[in-house]
Specification:
The protein has one helix at residues 2-16; strands at 29-37, 40-48, 52-57, 60-70, 73-78, 90-97, 101-108, 115-123. By secondary structure, the protein is mainly β. The chain has an 8-stranded antiparallel β-barrel with strand order 1-2-3-4-5-6-7-8. A hairpin with a 3-residue loop joins β2 and β3 (52-57).
Length: 128
Amino acid sequence: MKNTIALLCLLSLASCYNTEHNCKDFKTGKFKFEHEIEGVKKTTFFERNDSIEVETFEGKTDTATVRWISDCEYVLRKKHPKNNQEKNAISMKILTTSKNSYTFEFGMVGIETKQRGTVTKIGEINTK
């Protein structure tokens, strides 16, 4: 009986925890994505509006179209792919959000393998 009561208390506490999903806060803005490549920390900066994302990585800038599927899911497709791999669309899904960052899952459309990362919002896009 004690175990049942303890389990019910634990379940009720767990149900109170609700993952934050304020994805609309991250549809536009200036962002930073830090990741590790072969043991070296790299940073990608990007700006996104409703339909375009401009990314800068190691001094190179690239542009992709953004197609929102839902408030928390979108697909990126490079506007000027340089090879066949860059022609593949990338599926992005925001999993959780906080005040100024979000955790997301990404991978090529049609491929089951996914990776995860965290993006930090560093500013708003100037509209003037």
